[in-house]
Amino acid sequence: MDKAVYKRVLLKLSGEALLGKSSLGIDPDTVTGIAREIKEIANLGVQLGIVVGGGNIFRGFEASTKGMDRTSADYMGMLATVMNSLAMQSALEKIDVVTRVQTAIEMREVAEPFIHRRAVRHLEKGRVVIFAGGTGNPYFTTDTAASLRAIEIKADVILKATKVDGVYDKDPMIHSEAKMFDKICYTEVLAKNLKVMDATAISLCRENQLPIIVFNLNRRGNIRRVICGQSVGTVVED
């Protein structure tokens, strides 16, 4: 039986990961598939926090470039992450994974407010904790929220699930000759402006020596492989 090499992890999912074959919104079958993979690693005894983006519903930055007030647009994006988090919670609880959603923006009727000690206690009890609402502040991405929450809960690693196999020297969706890194340091990611996570998120990880593993979510079983220490994707660390 596979054995987990990490005790506590933060899984970062993009909003687009929930799209499936849809162009907008949430595909229930796709969410259910991700939930089943999450259950597999929860069954290994791994303490799991999750941050989900909101790009499948609303992108604050893109809206702001079209004339919408940036602060209002970013708050709308945060609400989109809450919708995604509730969808993920529903899918997980349908397959008997006890889950809590905590929001950076207080909305007690639908989720708990983010309280650091309570989040850690949930993790210690084996509950999956989904952190919604970004950081609760405009001008910060969900990548930064993932780094911040990972540091706060003292996660061993951030797992950045994407639609490509790892970190490349150029966009592999455009350039067929793009080369993937097996390992790369934070400073090189920043210097080369590689689109792993935004600069604030990378800087937070560098300052706190928190490794990031970037891998392809679309390959079934990859989350489990990463958790069990197999060589999957790209490792970002010093």
Descriptors:
11 strands; Carbamate kinase; single chain; two-stranded antiparallel sheet; nine-stranded mixed β-sheet; alpha/beta; globular; 18% strand; 238 residues
Described by strand count, sense and barrel closure, the largest sheet is: 9 strands, mixed
| CATH homologous superfamily designation | Acetylglutamate kinase-like
Radius of gyration: 17 Å
Strand order of the largest sheet: 4-3-5-2-1-6-10-11-9
What order do the helices and strands follow?
EHEHHEEHEHEEEEHHEHE
Mean pLDDT: 95
What's the count of strands?
11
Which shape, going by the Cα principal axes?
A: globular
Topology at a glance:
Layout: E1 8-13, H1 28-42, E2 47-52, H2 60-65, H3 70-94, E3 99-103, E4 112-113, H4 116-124, E5 128-132, H5 142-152, E6 157-162, E7 167-168, E8 180-181, E9 183-184, H6 186-191, H7 199-207, E10 212-216, H8 222-227, E11 234-236
Parallel strand pairs: 1-2, 1-6, 2-5, 3-4, 3-5, 6-10, 9-11
Antiparallel strand pairs: 7-8, 10-11
Helix pairs in contact: 1-3, 5-7
Describe the structure.
With 238 residues, the chain is α/β, with parallel strands linked by helices. It has one domain: Carbamate kinase (3-Layer(aba) Sandwich). Helix content is 37%, strand content 18%. It contains eight helices and eleven strands. The chain has helices at residues 28-42, 60-65, 70-94, 116-124, 142-152, 186-191, 199-207, 222-227; strands at residues 8-13, 47-52, 99-103, 112-113, 128-132, 157-162, 167-168, 180-181, 183-184, 212-216, 234-236. The strands form two sheets. The protein has a nine-stranded mixed beta sheet, sandwiched between helices. Strand 1 (8-13), helix 1 (28-42) and strand 2 form a beta-alpha-beta unit. The longest helix is centred in the middle third of the chain and has 25 residues, at 70-94. The chain is globular. It starts with 7 loop residues before the first strand and ends with a strand.
